[in-house]
Amino acid sequence: VCVFDYFELKVFWASYTLGVFVCHSCSGLHRNIAQISKVKSVHLDPWSTSEVEFMNSVGNNAAKAKHEQIVPAFYYRPTHKDCTLLREQWIRAKYERKEFVCVERQEPYSAGYREGFLWKRGRDNGQYLSRKFILSEREGVLKYFNKHDAREPKAIMKINTVNASFQPTKIGTAHGLQITYLKDNSTRNIFVYHEDGKEMVDWFNAIRAARFHYLQVAFPGAPNTDLLPKLTRNYIKEGYMEKTGPKHTEGFKKRWFTMDDRRLMYFKDPLDAYARGEVFIGSKESGYIVLSGLPTSIQGNHWQFGITIVTPDRKFLFACETEEDQKDWIAAFQTVINRPMLPQEYAVEAYFKHKP
Protein backbone atom coordinates (compact mmCIF):
# COMPACT_ATOMS: atom_id res chain seq x y z
CA VAL A 1 0.00 0.00 0.00
CA CYS A 2 1.43 3.35 -0.91
CA VAL A 3 2.32 5.62 1.97
CA PHE A 4 0.40 8.61 0.70
CA ASP A 5 -3.00 9.26 -0.74
CA TYR A 6 -2.95 8.20 -4.36
CA PHE A 7 -6.42 9.65 -4.96
CA GLU A 8 -4.92 13.14 -4.84
CA LEU A 9 -2.47 12.38 -7.65
CA LYS A 10 -3.13 13.24 -11.27
CA VAL A 11 -1.28 10.18 -12.59
CA PHE A 12 -2.12 6.74 -11.20
CA TRP A 13 0.17 3.75 -11.08
CA ALA A 14 -0.66 0.27 -9.95
CA SER A 15 1.03 -2.99 -9.07
CA TYR A 16 -1.05 -5.46 -11.02
CA THR A 17 0.55 -8.43 -9.24
CA LEU A 18 -0.19 -7.11 -5.74
CA GLY A 19 -3.48 -5.43 -6.59
CA VAL A 20 -2.61 -2.01 -5.15
CA PHE A 21 -2.47 1.55 -6.47
CA VAL A 22 0.76 3.43 -5.83
CA CYS A 23 2.11 6.93 -6.35
CA HIS A 24 4.67 7.80 -9.02
CA SER A 25 7.54 7.89 -6.51
CA CYS A 26 6.74 4.50 -4.99
CA SER A 27 6.13 2.95 -8.41
CA GLY A 28 9.87 3.15 -9.02
CA LEU A 29 10.57 1.40 -5.71
CA HIS A 30 8.11 -1.35 -6.60
CA ARG A 31 10.01 -1.91 -9.85
CA ASN A 32 13.05 -2.77 -7.72
CA ILE A 33 11.24 -5.90 -6.57
CA ALA A 34 9.98 -6.89 -10.03
CA GLN A 35 9.84 -10.57 -9.06
CA ILE A 36 7.00 -9.64 -6.69
CA SER A 37 5.51 -6.37 -7.90
CA LYS A 38 4.94 -5.49 -11.56
CA VAL A 39 3.83 -1.92 -12.22
CA LYS A 40 1.74 -0.26 -14.93
CA SER A 41 0.39 3.21 -15.53
CA VAL A 42 -3.36 3.24 -15.06
CA HIS A 43 -3.82 5.68 -17.95
CA LEU A 44 -0.94 5.01 -20.34
CA ASP A 45 -0.50 1.22 -20.37
CA PRO A 46 -2.84 -1.44 -21.80
CA TRP A 47 -4.78 -3.54 -19.27
CA SER A 48 -6.27 -7.01 -19.76
CA THR A 49 -9.68 -7.88 -18.40
CA SER A 50 -8.16 -10.32 -15.91
CA GLU A 51 -5.77 -7.66 -14.58
CA VAL A 52 -8.60 -5.18 -14.09
CA GLU A 53 -10.67 -7.83 -12.31
CA PHE A 54 -7.73 -8.69 -10.04
CA MET A 55 -7.23 -5.02 -9.11
CA ASN A 56 -10.96 -4.78 -8.35
CA SER A 57 -10.87 -7.90 -6.18
CA VAL A 58 -7.94 -6.75 -4.03
CA GLY A 59 -7.38 -3.00 -3.66
CA ASN A 60 -5.34 -1.06 -1.14
CA ASN A 61 -7.47 -1.72 1.94
CA ALA A 62 -7.52 -5.49 1.49
CA ALA A 63 -3.80 -5.55 0.70
CA LYS A 64 -3.04 -3.54 3.82
CA ALA A 65 -5.09 -5.94 5.95
CA LYS A 66 -3.13 -8.84 4.48
CA HIS A 67 0.41 -7.46 4.51
CA GLU A 68 0.29 -5.30 7.68
CA GLN A 69 -1.27 -7.74 10.14
CA ILE A 70 1.31 -7.32 12.93
CA VAL A 71 3.33 -4.14 12.43
CA PRO A 72 5.03 -3.39 15.78
CA ALA A 73 3.86 -0.13 17.33
CA PHE A 74 7.41 1.25 17.33
CA TYR A 75 8.14 0.37 13.68
CA TYR A 76 8.57 3.53 11.62
CA ARG A 77 5.97 3.94 8.87
CA PRO A 78 7.50 6.31 6.30
CA THR A 79 5.68 9.14 4.56
CA HIS A 80 6.34 10.80 1.22
CA LYS A 81 8.70 13.23 3.01
CA ASP A 82 11.07 10.48 4.10
CA CYS A 83 14.24 9.36 2.33
CA THR A 84 14.22 6.70 -0.37
CA LEU A 85 15.86 4.12 1.90
CA LEU A 86 13.07 4.19 4.49
CA ARG A 87 10.36 3.97 1.83
CA GLU A 88 12.08 1.19 -0.12
CA GLN A 89 12.74 -0.94 2.97
CA TRP A 90 9.13 -0.48 4.12
CA ILE A 91 7.93 -1.83 0.78
CA ARG A 92 10.42 -4.71 0.85
CA ALA A 93 9.56 -5.56 4.47
CA LYS A 94 5.88 -5.83 3.57
CA TYR A 95 5.86 -7.54 0.21
CA GLU A 96 9.24 -9.22 -0.20
CA ARG A 97 10.23 -10.32 3.33
CA LYS A 98 6.66 -10.48 4.71
CA GLU A 99 7.86 -9.25 8.08
CA PHE A 100 4.42 -8.14 9.22
CA VAL A 101 2.70 -11.51 8.84
CA CYS A 102 5.39 -13.52 10.65
CA VAL A 103 6.58 -12.20 14.01
CA GLU A 104 9.77 -14.31 13.93
CA ARG A 105 11.00 -12.20 11.00
CA GLN A 106 10.94 -9.11 13.24
CA GLU A 107 13.67 -10.40 15.56
CA PRO A 108 16.46 -8.16 14.12
CA TYR A 109 14.76 -5.11 15.64
CA SER A 110 12.44 -6.65 18.26
CA ALA A 111 14.80 -8.86 20.29
CA GLY A 112 15.94 -6.12 22.72
CA TYR A 113 19.58 -6.75 21.84
CA ARG A 114 21.46 -6.03 18.65
CA GLU A 115 25.15 -6.34 17.81
CA GLY A 116 26.96 -5.60 14.57
CA PHE A 117 29.47 -3.50 12.67
CA LEU A 118 28.81 -0.09 11.12
CA TRP A 119 31.03 2.36 9.28
CA LYS A 120 31.51 5.32 11.63
CA ARG A 121 32.91 8.71 10.70
CA GLY A 122 36.03 9.67 12.63
CA ARG A 123 35.62 12.79 14.74
CA ASP A 124 38.93 14.37 13.76
CA ASN A 125 39.92 13.04 10.32
CA GLY A 126 36.50 12.39 8.78
CA GLN A 127 37.44 8.85 7.71
CA TYR A 128 34.87 6.08 8.01
CA LEU A 129 36.12 3.05 9.96
CA SER A 130 34.37 -0.18 10.91
CA ARG A 131 33.18 -0.06 14.51
CA LYS A 132 31.37 -2.62 16.63
CA PHE A 133 28.00 -1.40 17.99
CA ILE A 134 25.88 -3.02 20.71
CA LEU A 135 22.31 -2.00 21.60
CA SER A 136 21.05 -3.42 24.89
CA GLU A 137 17.56 -2.69 26.19
CA ARG A 138 18.42 -4.43 29.48
CA GLU A 139 21.33 -2.04 30.08
CA GLY A 140 19.46 0.87 28.52
CA VAL A 141 22.40 1.82 26.33
CA LEU A 142 23.80 1.97 22.82
CA LYS A 143 27.60 1.66 22.78
CA TYR A 144 30.41 1.29 20.29
CA PHE A 145 33.97 -0.01 20.43
CA ASN A 146 37.01 1.43 18.64
CA LYS A 147 38.60 -2.02 18.25
CA HIS A 148 36.79 -5.23 17.39
CA ASP A 149 38.31 -7.04 20.38
CA ALA A 150 38.09 -4.12 22.83
CA ARG A 151 36.58 -4.88 26.21
CA GLU A 152 35.67 -1.31 27.09
CA PRO A 153 33.43 0.78 24.81
CA LYS A 154 34.62 4.06 23.36
CA ALA A 155 31.24 5.66 24.05
CA ILE A 156 28.14 4.73 26.03
CA MET A 157 24.92 6.40 24.93
CA LYS A 158 21.95 6.22 27.28
CA ILE A 159 18.78 5.26 25.45
CA ASN A 160 16.79 8.00 27.18
CA THR A 161 18.80 10.68 25.29
CA VAL A 162 19.49 8.88 21.98
CA ASN A 163 17.96 10.05 18.71
CA ALA A 164 18.45 8.66 15.21
CA SER A 165 17.70 10.42 11.94
CA PHE A 166 18.50 9.42 8.36
CA GLN A 167 20.59 12.15 6.70
CA PRO A 168 21.60 10.87 3.24
CA THR A 169 22.25 14.30 1.72
CA LYS A 170 24.28 15.68 4.61
CA ILE A 171 26.33 12.50 5.14
CA GLY A 172 26.74 11.86 1.42
CA THR A 173 25.51 8.26 1.32
CA ALA A 174 22.00 6.91 0.75
CA HIS A 175 22.23 4.83 3.93
CA GLY A 176 23.64 7.56 6.20
CA LEU A 177 22.26 7.73 9.75
CA GLN A 178 22.96 10.49 12.26
CA ILE A 179 22.82 9.37 15.89
CA THR A 180 22.79 12.01 18.62
CA TYR A 181 22.95 11.71 22.39
CA LEU A 182 23.64 13.95 25.35
CA LYS A 183 27.06 13.93 26.98
CA ASP A 184 27.29 16.21 30.01
CA ASN A 185 24.01 17.74 28.77
CA SER A 186 25.62 18.77 25.48
CA THR A 187 24.74 17.20 22.14
CA ARG A 188 27.18 14.74 20.57
CA ASN A 189 26.79 13.60 16.94
CA ILE A 190 28.01 10.40 15.36
CA PHE A 191 27.53 9.53 11.69
CA VAL A 192 27.26 5.92 10.52
CA TYR A 193 26.24 3.86 7.52
CA HIS A 194 26.18 0.29 6.21
CA GLU A 195 26.21 -0.94 2.61
CA ASP A 196 23.09 -3.03 3.29
CA GLY A 197 19.97 -0.85 3.44
CA LYS A 198 18.04 -3.43 5.46
CA GLU A 199 20.82 -3.46 8.06
CA MET A 200 20.54 0.30 8.56
CA VAL A 201 16.75 0.35 8.81
CA ASP A 202 16.87 -2.59 11.24
CA TRP A 203 19.27 -0.61 13.46
CA PHE A 204 16.97 2.42 13.21
CA ASN A 205 13.91 0.41 14.28
CA ALA A 206 15.87 -1.40 17.00
CA ILE A 207 16.70 2.02 18.49
CA ARG A 208 13.04 2.98 18.25
CA ALA A 209 12.02 -0.27 19.96
CA ALA A 210 14.49 0.31 22.81
CA ARG A 211 13.24 3.86 23.32
CA PHE A 212 9.61 2.72 23.16
CA HIS A 213 10.12 0.18 25.92
CA TYR A 214 12.10 2.70 27.99
CA LEU A 215 9.29 5.25 27.69
CA GLN A 216 6.66 2.65 28.58
CA VAL A 217 8.49 2.13 31.89
CA ALA A 218 9.19 5.84 32.44
CA PHE A 219 5.57 6.85 31.74
CA PRO A 220 3.39 3.91 32.85
CA GLY A 221 -0.13 4.08 31.52
CA ALA A 222 0.71 6.66 28.83
CA PRO A 223 -1.05 5.83 25.54
CA ASN A 224 1.01 4.89 22.50
CA THR A 225 -0.20 8.04 20.76
CA ASP A 226 1.80 10.05 23.34
CA LEU A 227 4.91 7.86 23.24
CA LEU A 228 5.39 7.14 19.53
CA PRO A 229 6.26 10.75 18.51
CA LYS A 230 9.06 10.66 21.11
CA LEU A 231 10.86 7.59 19.74
CA THR A 232 12.88 9.39 17.07
CA ARG A 233 12.55 12.85 15.59
CA ASN A 234 13.68 14.68 12.49
CA TYR A 235 15.18 18.10 12.93
CA ILE A 236 12.81 21.04 12.68
CA LYS A 237 15.25 22.83 10.36
CA GLU A 238 18.90 22.80 9.32
CA GLY A 239 21.02 25.10 7.20
CA TYR A 240 23.59 27.87 7.10
CA MET A 241 23.20 31.25 8.79
CA GLU A 242 25.64 33.91 9.92
CA LYS A 243 25.97 34.69 13.61
CA THR A 244 27.70 37.24 15.79
CA GLY A 245 28.85 37.03 19.39
CA PRO A 246 27.16 38.08 22.64
CA LYS A 247 28.50 41.65 22.50
CA HIS A 248 27.14 42.10 18.95
CA THR A 249 30.39 43.84 17.98
CA GLU A 250 32.17 40.73 16.70
CA GLY A 251 32.18 39.97 13.01
CA PHE A 252 29.49 37.67 11.66
CA LYS A 253 30.63 34.11 10.90
CA LYS A 254 28.97 31.52 8.68
CA ARG A 255 27.86 28.47 10.68
CA TRP A 256 25.72 25.36 10.13
CA PHE A 257 22.62 25.49 12.35
CA THR A 258 20.40 22.64 13.53
CA MET A 259 17.07 23.18 15.27
CA ASP A 260 16.48 20.04 17.34
CA ASP A 261 13.31 20.47 19.37
CA ARG A 262 14.19 23.43 21.64
CA ARG A 263 17.93 23.24 21.12
CA LEU A 264 19.39 25.52 18.43
CA MET A 265 22.92 24.28 17.79
CA TYR A 266 25.61 25.69 15.51
CA PHE A 267 28.60 23.95 13.98
CA LYS A 268 31.56 25.03 11.88
CA ASP A 269 30.89 22.02 9.63
CA PRO A 270 27.61 20.04 9.24
CA LEU A 271 29.42 16.81 10.18
CA ASP A 272 31.12 18.07 13.33
CA ALA A 273 30.85 15.79 16.35
CA TYR A 274 30.18 18.61 18.80
CA ALA A 275 28.32 21.89 18.46
CA ARG A 276 30.28 25.13 18.86
CA GLY A 277 27.35 26.39 20.88
CA GLU A 278 23.76 25.67 21.82
CA VAL A 279 20.87 28.05 22.46
CA PHE A 280 17.69 27.10 24.30
CA ILE A 281 14.53 28.39 22.61
CA GLY A 282 11.69 28.64 25.11
CA SER A 283 8.06 29.71 24.73
CA LYS A 284 6.42 33.09 24.32
CA GLU A 285 4.95 32.72 27.81
CA SER A 286 8.53 32.69 29.11
CA GLY A 287 9.54 35.81 27.19
CA TYR A 288 11.00 34.37 23.96
CA ILE A 289 10.34 36.32 20.75
CA VAL A 290 11.55 36.02 17.16
CA LEU A 291 11.80 39.19 15.05
CA SER A 292 12.56 39.81 11.41
CA GLY A 293 15.63 41.98 10.86
CA LEU A 294 18.56 43.18 12.96
CA PRO A 295 18.97 46.26 15.20
CA THR A 296 19.90 49.30 13.10
CA SER A 297 23.28 49.68 14.84
CA ILE A 298 24.50 46.24 13.80
CA GLN A 299 27.25 45.94 11.19
CA GLY A 300 29.47 43.20 9.83
CA ASN A 301 26.88 40.82 8.41
CA HIS A 302 27.53 39.77 4.80
CA TRP A 303 24.05 38.33 4.37
CA GLN A 304 21.25 40.87 4.43
CA PHE A 305 18.21 39.00 5.78
CA GLY A 306 18.46 39.27 9.54
CA ILE A 307 16.72 37.48 12.42
CA THR A 308 16.69 38.54 16.07
CA ILE A 309 15.75 36.10 18.81
CA VAL A 310 14.93 37.77 22.09
CA THR A 311 15.33 35.66 25.23
CA PRO A 312 14.88 36.69 28.87
CA ASP A 313 18.66 37.12 29.17
CA ARG A 314 19.94 38.43 25.83
CA LYS A 315 19.38 38.83 22.09
CA PHE A 316 20.77 36.43 19.51
CA LEU A 317 21.45 37.86 16.05
CA PHE A 318 21.55 35.85 12.82
CA ALA A 319 21.63 36.64 9.10
CA CYS A 320 20.33 34.53 6.20
CA GLU A 321 21.52 34.47 2.59
CA THR A 322 18.05 34.72 1.04
CA GLU A 323 14.67 36.06 2.02
CA GLU A 324 13.23 32.57 1.63
CA ASP A 325 15.73 31.17 4.14
CA GLN A 326 14.85 34.00 6.52
CA LYS A 327 11.12 33.23 6.29
CA ASP A 328 11.70 29.50 6.77
CA TRP A 329 13.88 30.00 9.84
CA ILE A 330 11.45 32.49 11.37
CA ALA A 331 8.59 30.03 10.81
CA ALA A 332 10.64 27.26 12.48
CA PHE A 333 11.49 29.44 15.48
CA GLN A 334 7.89 30.63 15.76
CA THR A 335 6.61 27.04 15.80
CA VAL A 336 8.83 26.28 18.80
CA ILE A 337 8.10 29.55 20.60
CA ASN A 338 4.33 29.13 20.18
CA ARG A 339 4.44 25.70 21.86
CA PRO A 340 4.01 25.80 25.66
CA MET A 341 6.96 24.42 27.58
CA LEU A 342 6.74 21.03 29.28
CA PRO A 343 7.70 20.74 32.97
CA GLN A 344 10.96 18.93 32.17
CA GLU A 345 11.91 21.65 29.67
CA TYR A 346 12.14 24.23 32.45
CA ALA A 347 14.99 22.20 33.94
CA VAL A 348 16.79 22.27 30.59
CA GLU A 349 16.25 26.03 30.36
CA ALA A 350 17.69 26.48 33.87
CA TYR A 351 20.77 24.48 32.87
CA PHE A 352 21.36 26.70 29.85
CA LYS A 353 21.01 29.85 31.97
CA HIS A 354 23.68 28.66 34.40
CA LYS A 355 25.90 27.05 31.80
CA PRO A 356 29.46 28.44 32.06
In short:
The chain has helices at residues 24-31, 49-57, 59-67, 84-96, 107-110, 168-171, 197-218, 224-227, 323-338, 343-353, and strands at residues 13-15, 20-22, 39-41, 113-121, 128-136, 141-145, 155-158, 163-166, 177-183, 186-193, 237-243, 253-260, 263-267, 277-280, 289-292, 305-310, 315-320.
If you average the pLDDT, what whole number results? Answer: 92
Classify the beta-strand content into a percent band: 25-35%
- Give me the CATH architecture of the largest domain, please: Roll
Low-confidence stretches: 1-11
Report the structural category: alpha+beta
The figure for the number of domains is 3
Q: The biggest beta sheet, please? A: 7 strands, antiparallel
CATH hierarchy class name of the largest domain: Mainly Beta
Order of helices and strands: EEHEHHHHEEEEEHEEHHEEEEEEEHH
Query: Number of helical runs?
Result: 10
| Strand adjacency order, main sheet | 7-6-5-4-10-9-8
Radius of gyration: 23 Å
| Basic shape | globular
CATH fold name of the largest domain: PH-domain like
Distance between the termini: 52 Å
Question: What's the CATH H-level homologous superfamily of the largest domain?
Answer: Pleckstrin-homology domain (PH domain)/Phosphotyrosine-binding domain (PTB)
Query: Helix content range of the residues, please?
Result: 25-40%
Organism: Sphaeramia orbicularis (orbiculate cardinalfish)
Domain Arf-GAP: 1-108
Keywords: Cytoplasm, GTPase activation, Metal-binding, Repeat, Zinc, Zinc-finger
Domain PH: 111-212, 234-338
